[in-house]
Amino acid sequence: EFGERDKLVFSINEKATDRRDLEKGIDGDAAKQLGIAEKELAAASAKFEEVRADCAKARVGWQSALQAAKSGTATASNETTRLENELRESEEAVSKGVCPTCGQKLDSDHSPRVDELKAQLEKAKQIQKEQNDLSDSLEAEPESLRKADGEEHAAMKALEESRLREQSAKVVIRQQDELVTRLKSVADQLQVLEKRMASLPSSFDRAAYDVLCERADALAQMHAQWQALGQAEDTETRARKRHAEKLKEFEEERAKQNIDKARLTEIGLSEEQAVQVRQEFVTVKNTVPFLEKQLLDVQESAKNSHRAVLECTDRLEKWKENAAKVDEHRHGHLLYKEVSDAMSDLRTRLNSEIRPKLAALAGETLAQITNHRYGKVEIDDSFKATLFDGERNKPVISGGEEDVLALALRVALSRYVLEKSGMPMSMLVMDEVFGSLDSDRRSNVLEMFEGLREMFPQIILISHVEGLGAHGDRILYVNFDSHEKVSFVTEAVPQAISL
Question: Which residues sit opposite 83 in a β-bridge?
Answer without folding.
Answer: none
